[in-house]
TrEMBL record:
Native organism: Streptomyces mutabilis
Active-site residue list: 47
Organism taxonomic ancestry: Bacteria, Bacillati, Actinomycetota, Actinomycetes, Kitasatosporales
Domain of life assignment: Bacteria
InterPro entries linked: Phenazine_PhzF-like (IPR003719)
Protein name listed in UniProt: Phenazine biosynthesis protein PhzC/PhzF
Amino acid sequence: MTNYDVLRVFCAPNGGYGNELGVVRDGSVLPDPAGRQELAAELGFSETVFVDDPERGVVDIYTPTSRLPFAGHPCVGTAWLLDVPELVTPAGVVGARLDGEFSWIEARPEWAPPRTLRQYDTAAEVDDLAVPPPGERSETGAPADEVRGRVYAWAWEDEPAGRVRARAFPGRGDGIDEDEATGAAALLLTERLGRALNITQGAGSQILTAPQPEGWVEIGGRVRLER
């Protein structure tokens, strides 16, 4: 059996919630992409990371059904685990830093997969949403297979304070009906709104964001080692 760590990323202040992440620290034990995809499907996390060079932070990210050039909570969690100043992903180099209890990465919105950012009037409406069917057409008019049903539902809890209530529905049809915490979606929402955000997602996870110069965005949260 391939050894792997399990983290929770974007935990609440009490250390609860957060999105589970699998990290294979020694990616050389499973170098073949097909083997990595098979393990990611077997583990069943929303994402699994294979570390190909722990000193340089070279990583390879998989969902249960596909390989991703970039993903938010895998990068936040893996940067914390490896304690490196950057990660090298297929999308580009992701800056990383630790600030007290928070692990931060710096990434570009164009690296995130496209998705529908759907605003609701109240946080209660977001709470009451049912999981939408996979393959829903995007509000931008993109083909359904282009957005793969990804919907990020959000509402202001306190607009002056930048507090947001959100839920994420990946719509991939791979058994992950809802993501507990989604850094890439928070990245896109921050770009759209152009301001720092304090997002409560899923059952109670917390994601912090902050726009940076030249189109970069920082995403931060608490990380816990489960096992």
